[in-house]
Specification:
Blueprint: H1 2-35, H2 39-58
Helix pairs in contact: 1-2
Length: 59
């Protein structure tokens, strides 16, 4: 029982850090796009980020 509780705490913490990482990365990408980066590159990176985040949250 205790092991399962610790595991769920770890998973929650991991999801939280993955979400903040994703948010920070999106913010950085948004700033780069405003500066004048290629918007196609931004879209590709955002979709890659979404795939990465989804796989992190489900693992």
């Amino acid at each position: 029982m205790i092991e399962k509780h610790c595991d769920s705490n770890y998973k929650y913490s991991h999801e939280k850090s993955a979400k903040s990482f994703a948010k920070a990365l999106c913010k950085a990408l948004d700033i780069k796009q405003r500066i004048g980066q290629n918007s196609q590159l931004h879209s590709f990176t955002a979709s890659q980020l979404h795939s990465f985040t989804a796989s992190q949250l489900h693992s």
